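Example 3.2
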Amino acid sequence: MPRGLFITLEGLDGSGKTTQIRRLAAWLKRRFPCEEPVLTRQPGGTETGDRIRSLVLDSLSSRLAPLTEMALMFADRAQAIAEVIQPALDQGRIVICDRFTDSTEAYQGGGRQLGSQPVLELHRLLCANLQPDLTLLLLPSLEVSLERARRRNQRTAEQEGADEGRFEQEQDAFYRRVWEKYREIAAREPHRIVLIEGDLGLDEVQEKIVEAVAARLIAHGNSG
């Protein structure tokens, strides 16, 4: 059985990933009505991962050391690969993951200033160097992303009582480093990463995503 297709979406919180993942999943269901894509997220997506997510994103975890934070992200990722991602790919399924190692390189490597090398080395050691077939990097302006993220987290806290705003407490300089690291990663891996940049409307972003995914499906031998 041919290996499935592994698609990741990346970007700052507030970049619109969640909305576009829903739209992409709906488009894929219409194109392949007999096979739903596998949707997952990081951190989270497994029982262990959800526990890690609640720890890493909770505002009360303010004293996590940067290396501890990075180690937790990779613990979550290794579990997700073993439990969800690799089995689905082995079954020939399409997997859509909200964040993957590019996020760790951007947030911990760039934002926390740990550098890219330890992130890439841990990915090689703990994740068998599993690479997405396609990464869609949504990169609106920094200001727009931060405004959206902070507004969303406040709304989530009020409606659901869930506190996932730890990263949004960071200063703008942190996010500037994350934003710049994402651009650096995209420039380094243009064969894998499709950069969707600028303050575009939802339909414009979806059109670019669908175009990129359709092309990758054809290259993968699965045009529907």
